[in-house]
Amino acid sequence: MCPSLSRCIHTIFDRYAMLKIKVLLNALGTMALLAGCTTIAVTPGRSVTLQNTFQNNNADILIRNGRIIDGTGNSWYLADLAIRDGKIVAIGKLDHYKATRTIDANRQIVAPGFIDVHAHIEFGLFENPTANNYVHDGVTTVITGNCGGSADSLAEFFTRIDTTGTSINVASLVGHNTVRRQVLGLANREASADDQRRMEALVEQAMREGAVGLSTGLIYLPGLYSSTDEVIGLARAAARHRGIYASHIRNEGNKVVDAIEEALNIGRAANMPVQISHFKVSAPANWGRSRETLALIERARSEGLDVTIDQYPYTASSTTLSVMLPDWAVEGGSDAIGKRLSDPEQRRKIAAEMFNNARENKRPDFSYAVVARHAADASLNGKNLSAINLQKGRPATMEAEIETLLDLLVAGGAQMVYHGMNEDDVRFIMRYPFNMVGADGGVQNGKGMPHPRSYGTNARVLGKYVREEKIMTLEEAIRRMTSLAAQKFQLKDRGLLRVGFAADIVIFDETQIIDKATFEAPHQFSSGISDVLVNGKSVIDSGRHTGMRSGIALKGSGFFPAAGVE
Fold it and tell me: Strand (E) positions, 53-97?
């Protein structure tokens, strides 16, 4: 063929192809404008910006000069961010935008608001709806209902959140212990077929009311008396509504491997994603076993099970004093416990089992157990059981310390802090890429000596473990705190800085962010966070809480409005 003719033919076809592309883009542009979009993705890595003369370049809030870390794990980039009607409407160089309020980020980090995947805020949030300890730590959303305990009625709980007004968004799991208590009370017995049907119906109802999944707390009443098959039945009920299974496993000490395997098997049997809560290995006898336990998670993932974990960045846990008792001794709750401890024979039996358990876990004494809150005698708050035992004039023996512990239970029990983990295990677990951040805390009121994790979890990760110890990159840590959490719990418009997503945003100085709360002085807010926005409203402004309560209840994928209170 003549070269000139060939070039002519190619030119005609090229122009025809370009004409078709222009017609297609005009059509797509019209649809995009009707949908309020300004950009169309053509191929990965390329986009077409639409010239829309009707584009609204007004914003409620404009964040300028930020170093954007968008939650994907990608590196930061310099950009502005515009917010209107609670949503992100533009990211880029936005000199043409006008805003009611402008925040100069001054090259600080601008990131999605942190999502705390493991919270217990059912009661504290309504006492202190501004949730200061959370938002000062950069948290804009929490997942509550963990460890098997949730509100009895999630429909009423969600309605109360939206009518009360809170400073954080709240999603909730449905708790196995809550459901079992409603059907079987606190009894130590196997569920009958009728009991099982009733419990599964309650789980399905909670999923329709907006739960994001089912949680278990298999060391707590009454779930510790349940069989694996019982839990599988309830998990399947949640799975039918696209929920996940989140578990405080049955044992985090000597039997931790068996407990992890149980959680994985429940996920396999119910064909649903699994989240193992506050992943750890407890007691000196188990220090160093994190390599063994994480290998179980990695193997399950390689086999196709969607299993992830969460962690708080401390070597101490916190829960009730009663978990120190043998399982059989807690049946019936606090009143029944008190009666057993008043019986000399039963008390001796309980003490003997506790002594043997301490020896098996290589505990020399009970100095690792610290009172966080004891209602009967607040002067004991912050003191460990060994010190309290000596204060009572008793000998420094394990037997005497057990008697002191049992006396505290008779007097009403206590919330405790247990220094039971090893820092090397904490660091090793933290390096795992499918590990999220969860404080395992609650909304605080400034009373008692609670675990500092309720105040400083996220700032501690970013300050101590990212900046100082370089366990992971800043971008990776933020991915774990944001998009990974949103993906796992199906929070579809959270966890990323993306146009159209909810404007949950935190601005912080990566060189200054750090936790201030300590075990000795826990009621201290984190520092280095200048601004926090929840649904496009300023909750933290220049380091101060504004009093804004713009949080909302977030519902799971199975939410069906007719099932709940509207």
Answer: 58-68, 77-84, 87-92
